[in-house]
Amino acid sequence: MVGKNCFAIASDRRLGVQLQTVATDFQRVFKIHDKLYIGLSGLATDVQTLYQRLVFRHKLYQLREERDMKPQTFASLVSALLYEKRFGPYFCQPVIAGLGEDNEPFICTMDCIGAKELAKDFVVSGTASESLYGACESMYKPNMEPEELFETVSQALQASVDRDCLSGWGGYVLVVTPTEIQERG
Amino acid sequence: MTGAMDLPPKGGFSYDYCRRNAMLADKGLKMPGFLKTGTTIVGLVFQDGVVLGADTRATEGPIVADKNCEKIHFMAPNIYCCGAGTAADTEAVTDMVSSQLQLHRYATGRESRVVTALTLLKSHLFSYQGHVSAALVLGGVDVTGPHLHTVYPHGSTDTLPFATMGSGSLAAMSVFESQYKEGLTREEGIKLVADAIRAGIFNDLGSGSNVDVCVITKGKTEYLRNHQLPNPRTYASSKGYSFTKGQTEVLYTKITQLKPKVEVTEGDAMEE
C-alpha cells in the first residue's frame, strides 16, 4: 500500500500443506535492496526458488551497473522471468514495492505468468486476496503518514486473514520511508 | 540446475516446469488463475485515420483485479494495438512486436507499416497454435493510408473498416452496425467509439470502469487515456477509517536507518 513518500508491504506468517500448518514463521517478504522489496505468495518452493533467482539477477545487475535496480526495471525483470515459463508456470504471485526516483513509491503485482498490474493505491495477492481487495478498498486513504499507514495495513491484513483459514499466525509489516525501514511483527 | 543459473536464457519459452506442474495438478494443487482482460476493444477507420478504443477492467476470475489498466498498447509512433485475452500474453506479444518494429525501423530507415506489425503478430500467434491467448485490434496510419486489422489467437486476421473484439464485442458491434458510416469526422469517430465502449462497459460483465481512446492520423497520434469516466467511485465514506496509533498489537519493532549511499565519482576518462 502506498502512503505519503513511503510504502508498506505486509504478509502473514503461516506455511501450510492444505489444512495442516507446517510453520508459523515463514518469510514471504524479501529484500532486494534497501528501497525495493518483493512479497511472494503461492507454492513455497516456487517462492524460494524465484527469490533466489531474482537476487542472483539483481546482484549481477549491481556488479555490471554499479547501482541498484529501479523498481520499474525490477518489475519488468520479474515479469519476463515469469512469462518465460508461460506454459509451465511458477505457482507464485509477486507483489513488488519500492521507492523509485525522487523516493516516489512504486507498487505493482503480477499474476503467475507475469501480467503486470500497476496501481497507485494498493495491490494484493494470495489466498485471501478477495477479502484483501475489500478491506483495502474501504480502509485506504491517500497520502497517509507512515504511522497511520502501518495501522491501516495491519488492520486490513488482520481483518482479511481472519476470514481465511489458509492464512494466519500473525503478520509481518515493513514500512519504508526515504530515511528508515520499520519492520514490525 | 537449469540454464538460468549460469547465464540469462537466450529468450523464448522454457518448458522445464511442465512435467512438475502436471504432477502437482495430479496431487491436487489448483493452478492459480491468469489475469484475463475480459474486454471490449474496438477500432474504426474515419476520414483522416483510425480511432481505437478500449475499456479498462482487468479480471481474475470473478474479481476485478485492476480497475484502470491500459489495454491500448504502443507498437510504433503511428501504430497502436488493443489487446484482449490473457493479460500477460497481450502485453508480452505487443512488447515483443514493438521491439521488432523498432529494430526494423533502424534497419530500413522508414516509418513502420501496419501490415509489417500484422505479419509479425500473426506468424507468432500461429506458431503457438492459439495457446498464446491474445486477440488484438491493430490500427495505424502509414504511407499507404489508414489500416485497421483484427488478429485472432490462432493467427487468422481480418481487415475491416470497423472492428470489435473481446467479451463485450457483441454489445459494441451493435452500436457500430447501427451508426457507422464512411467518411466520419474526428469528433464523430471519437463519439462513436466512446458509445460503443460504453455499451460494452454497461452490458458486459467482463468489461467496466473507464473508456480509453486513441486517435491516429497521418503524422499525429493522440492517446486520450481515461477519455470518459462513467463509473466514478461513489461509495467511499468521506471520513474514511481512521485507526489510532497503537491499535494494532505489535510483538517486536526493528527500525533501520537508511544510510545515504556513498557515490564514487569516476576520475578523468582514460586518455590514450
Describe this structure in words.
The complex is a heterodimer of chains A (185) and B (272). Chain A is an alpha+beta fold. Chain A has a single domain (2-184), classed as Aminohydrolase, N-terminal nucleophile (Ntn) domain (Glutamine Phosphoribosylpyrophosphate, subunit 1, domain 1), CATH 3.60.20. Chain A has helices spanning 44-65, 71-84, 129-139, 146-162; strands at residues 7-12, 15-17, 20-23, 29-33, 36-42, 92-99, 105-110, 116-119, 171-176, 180-184. Chain B has 5 helices and 13 strands. Chain B has 272 residues and is α+β, with helices and mostly antiparallel strands. In chain B, strands 10-1-2-11-12 form a 5-stranded antiparallel beta sheet, covered by helices on one side. Chain B has a 5-stranded antiparallel beta sheet with strand order 5-6-7-8-9, with helices on one face. Chains A and B meet through α1, α2, β8, α3 and α4 of A and α1, β4, α2 and β13 of B.
What is the topological layout?
The complex is a heterodimer of chains A (185) and B (272).
Chain A: E1 7-12, E2 15-17, E3 20-23, E4 29-33, E5 36-42, H1 44-65, H2 71-84, E6 92-99, E7 105-110, E8 116-119, H3 129-139, H4 146-162, E9 171-176, E10 180-184
Antiparallel strand pairs in A: 1-9, 2-3, 4-5, 5-6, 6-7, 7-8, 9-10
Helix pairs in contact in A: 3-4
Chain B: H1 18-26, E1 41-45, E2 49-54, E3 58-60, E4 63-66, E5 72-76, E6 79-85, H2 87-108, H3 114-127, E7 134-142, E8 145-151, E9 157-159, E10 162-165, H4 169-179, H5 186-203, E11 211-217, E12 220-228, E13 253-257
Antiparallel strand pairs in B: 1-2, 1-10, 2-11, 3-4, 5-6, 6-7, 7-8, 8-9, 11-12
